[in-house]
Specification:
By secondary structure, this protein is mostly helical. The chain folds into 2 domains: 3-114, Arc Repressor Mutant, subunit A; 189-414, no CATH class. The chain contains 20 helices and 12 strands. The strands form 4 sheets. The chain has a 3-stranded antiparallel beta sheet.
Length: 415
C-alpha cells in the first residue's frame, strides 16, 4: 500500500476512534492518526509557522487531543523532525502540504511497530474500497495476509463493524457484504451502474438529473437535491457513499451541501487528495458565500479573482462574513483571519487546499470520465461536518461541538 493511502486510512480510522472507549487494540493507529491531524492543523503549506503556547493548546483541542496525550504526540513529531519546541510551550512547524502529512503519518505508524492486527484493520478497509466483498472471501484474505487466527479475524471484523471502519449489509442467505464510504471515490462507472440496476426507471431518471446538475456546478444545496430525487432515495444513496453531504454553519444557520465523492479524481486519488476534508470544507464555505451571504455581509461575486488572490498569497477583504463563515477553516489553519474595524481579512495558509477548492468551484465536478452508453455520470466533492461523518451519522447519532467552545478557540486564534 502506498504511504499516502495508508496515511489517509490512519486518519480516517482515527476520526472513527475519537468517540470510542476501550479500543486499546488500535492504539498505534490512533496515535499515528492524531499525530497527522495535529501536524496538519499546525502547519501552513509552504512556510514555517511559529505558534505560541495558547495557539498550540487551541489547535490540540481542535484536533481532539487530550492533555494526557499531547506530550507523546509532540515527542513523536519532534522525533520525525517536523516540529521544534520553543520556550513556554511554543512550537515551530515546517511548511508541509496535505500530501506530505499523509506520508509522515504512515511513517509514524510504522515506527510504532504496530501489530499485524492493526495492519489488518487498515488493509481490511482499503480492500473493500474498489468493490464490496463477501464475508467469507474477505475474512480468508485478511487472515492469510496478516497471519491472524480464526478468532482474531472474527474479533477484528466485529470491532471494525462496531467502530465504523467498515459497513455491511446482510444478504438473503444471512451472509454479510462489506463496503465503506470510500467506495465511490475511485472509478465509479461499474459501481454506480450496479446501484442503479436495482432502482426503478423513474428513480434512475431522477439521479440522471441530479448528476447532471452536480457535474456542471460541483456543489448544490441539500434542498435542491431533495426536490430532484426525494429525501428517502437521497438518504439511501448517502448511506452507501454515492453522494457526499457537507455541513457549513455560522451564527445564523446551518446549510448542507451535496457533492460527489470523486470530484478531485482528476488530480489523483480523491481519498488521498482531501483525506482531512479541508478542500471540501473550503468548497462548501465558499459556495455558501456565493449563494447565501448578503451584500452587506460580504457576498462573493468574483470567485475566480478572489481565489487567485488567495492562492497567490494575498489577503482578501474586508467583510463581516469572513469572520463568521470560515471559523472551521481558521481553526484548522487552512486560512488566517485578521480583524480590523469590525470587519475581517482572510489569507490562505494551505495553498494546496485552496487550489483544489478553486478547481471544483470554477469547473464543477472535475472528474474526467462519463458513463459510456449511459446517461448517468459517475462521480463528489462545511462549524463543518465532513461527508464521511455525515454518512456515519446517517447510521448513528453524534452531538456537535458547543458554540461557546468554538468562540473561545476563535478568540485565541485572533488574539
Amino acid at each position: 500500500m502506498e504511504k499516502r493511502t495508508e496515511g489517509a486510512w490512519l486518519i480516517n480510522h482515527t476520526k472513527k476512534l475519537f468517540d470510542v472507549k476501550g479500543a486499546q487494540d488500535f492504539e498505534d493507529i490512533e496515535l499515528a492518526g492524531k499525530c497527522g491531524v495535529f501536524l496538519s492543523n499546525l502547519a501552513a503549506s509552504d512556510e514555517q509557522s511559529d505558534l505560541n503556547s495558547d495557539k498550540v493548546s487551541s489547535i490540540a483541542k481542535v484536533s481532539n487531543i487530550k492533555k494526557t496525550e499531547i506530550e507523546t504526540i509532540k515527542s513523536k513529531l519532534q522525533e520525525a523532525r517536523l516540529i521544534e519546541s520553543g520556550k513556554n510551550g511554543s512550537l515551530s512547524v515546517l511548511g508541509i502540504t496535505t500530501s506530505m502529512v499523509l506520508t509522515h503519518t504512515s511513517d509514524i505508524f510504522s515506527n510504532c511497530n504496530p501489530t499485524n492486527y492493526q495492519r489488518a484493520a487498515i488493509e481490511l478497509s482499503d480492500n473493500i474500497s474498489d468493490l464490496p466483498k463477501g464475508e467469507k472471501i474477505l475474512s480468508e484474505y485478511i487472515s492469510d495476509s496478516h497471519k491472524l487466527s480464526k478468532s482474531e479475524t472474527s474479533d477484528l471484523f466485529l470491532q471494525s463493524e462496531g467502530i465504523g471502519f467498515i459497513d455491511y449489509e446482510k444478504l438473503e442467505d444471512g451472509s454479510k457484504f462489506y463496503f465503506n464510504g470510500n467506495l465511490f471515490r475511485r472509478e465509479g462507472v461499474e459501481k454506480t451502474n450496479a446501484v442503479l440496476s436495482s432502482l426503478k426507471f423513474d428513480e434512475t431518471n431522477k439521479i440522471t438529473e441530479l448528476d447532471a446538475l452536480l457535474t456542471s456546478k460541483g456543489c448544490i444545496t441539500l434542498e435542491s437535491a431533495k426536490l430532484i430525487i426525494g429525501e428517502q432515495l437521497l438518504s439511501k444513496l448517502q448511506s452507501i457513499g454515492m453522494y457526499d453531504f457537507n455541513d457549513v454553519s455560522n451564527s445564523r444557520e446551518v446549510k448542507t451541501f451535496v457533492t460527489k465523492p470523486a470530484a478531485f479524481s482528476k488530480y489523483g486519488n480523491p481519498f488521498e487528495e482531501d483525506a482531512l476534508d479541508l478542500a471540501k470544507a473550503f468548497v462548501a464555505s465558499l459556495y455558501y458565500g456565493m449563494n447565501f451571504s448578503s451584500p452587506t455581509r460580504g457576498k462573493i461575486t468574483m470567485l475566480s479573482a478572489l481565489m487567485r488572490k488567495l492562492v497567490n498569497g494575498y489577503e482578501v477583504g474586508p467583510a463581516p462574513a469572513i469572520g463568521e463563515d470560515y471559523k472551521l477553516l481558521e481553526l484548522k489553519r487552512v486560512i488566517q483571519i485578521r480583524p480590523e474595524g469590525g470587519k475581517y481579512y482572510m489569507k490562505l495558509l494551505k495553498k494546496d487546499i485552496g487550489a483544489l477548492a478553486m478547481q471544483v468551484l470554477e469547473f464543477g465536478d472535475t472528474t474526467e470520465h462519463t458513463f459510456s452508453g449511459s446517461n448517468i455520470y459517475a462521480g463528489s466533492i462545511t462549524n463543518y461536518v465532513g461527508p464521511e461523518e455525515k454518512r456515519y451519522i446517517n447510521r448513528k447519532t453524534q452531538s456537535p461541538q458547543s458554540k461557546q467552545s468554538v468562540a473561545e478557540l476563535i478568540r485565541t486564534f485572533r488574539g
